[in-house]
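Checklist before submission:
- one chain only
- standard amino acids only
- sequence pasted in full

Submission:
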Amino acid sequence: MNKIYLFANGFGETIRTLIVAYFILTLVFTIYSIARMYYIEHRSNDVKAGRARVKALQANGRLMQFPVYSMEEMAKDKHKRDVKLTFFPSDNPKDQRFLMILPGGGYAHLCTKQEGYPVAAALNRMGVNAFVLEYRTGRDCEPFAPMEDLGTALTFIQNNLERFDVVMDGYGLLGFSAGGNLAGIFASKEHGFADYEVPKPATVILGYPWTCVNDWLHHPYWNIWIGLLGIWLSNRGSFHMFGLRHIRKGRELLDVQKYIDESYPPTFMYSGSWDVLVPASRHADVFDTALEKNGIKHIYEKYFGVPHGIGLGLHTKAEGWLDRAVEFWNEQ
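Returned file contents:
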């Protein structure tokens, strides 16, 4: 009985046991969190409504999809061939403004079916015209290529306003995850709208955005597995854009907070407290602090227990965020 205590087998053996228990328990928690995320994500993204809207517009001959670049540009650079812009005109638009939707995917791929078309369909039901941009990702990416794609797409719209029956005045950007990073940077003075001679967006709307440098020194993690996930996702975007040789410099260049000043547009942002891929405490919270510091008009909604990738957020505590975001946009 005298040996039944914490260090009965020696201090070293106890420490090893605690470390092994930590790794096992945090791994189980991480696996559960990811499985939970995919389950909720499947329920919260109205993929069927997105597909139905695409088919309805096609049936009426109103679905408009274009390559962003010219034939000459695509012939010169094959990576630009898959950059597409899809227009979702509302059946009863309240005005001629539009929102540009930027799906996420960590700059490695695009979640267009989850965070693009369903959101455009929901906006159409609200009387809002919407565009969905499929920008360069993965092996097609290069330094600030998504920003170039967005700038080129907005220039294309600006040159075809009568064709789309829209106006540039008052347009907004709506980005999810890495798409939020893209929207966040483009709305600033560097690597953004000013480089393409298009107006500054009237509003930026961000869903669980990836916004900042994400490493152990900047943001210590209690869960090593979630930390590694966060580091991988942040560095993955930098790797695709800047290559392995310049990954550290690229990661810092994609830090949205560095681009915020007093001229930054009004921002609506939401995230979940159970986001294991892009933790709100390491991203959205930090972005919120930068907006506060610079006196930017903004709304930040954070929902307890909500994971990453929920899009419209149906059947979650975030449901209805898009209505509030559009109301915020209308106020600007």
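Reviewer check: Residues 11-44 form the longest helix (34 residues).
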